[in-house]
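ligand=zinc ion
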Amino acid sequence: MSPRERTIPAPPVNPETRPFWDAAAAGKLLVKRCTACGERHHYPRAICPFCGSDRTEWLDASGRGTIYSFSVFRRAPIPYAIAYVTLAEGPTMMTNLVDCDLDALRIGQAVRVVFKPTEDGPPVPMFTAA
Ligand SMILES: [Zn+2]
């Protein structure tokens, strides 16, 4: 890891989210889908946030999405961008935009997932220009 990379803390992993992090370690992005109402959601939950059903299942996501909104933190030792990215599958996830020109980011821009190593846990999904 280069000194220009930010150190990323390990994400919290619990029984509800473990499949998500196991998939991330394999380079795959998952979202949760409810088989009762058909809605998809993120962050992964056992109970559907739309209808309250426990009939949720894991779905392979394409890893593609668009920037819904973002903020660039330029005063940090290493500037970075936090964003909401709307996945092609529907859910919007809070994430970081990485490996791209922070001055060139724009709302609606196409992005794709990349997995970034963490200090002591599974890699976390972040996004870069598609
Ligand atoms: Zn539901």
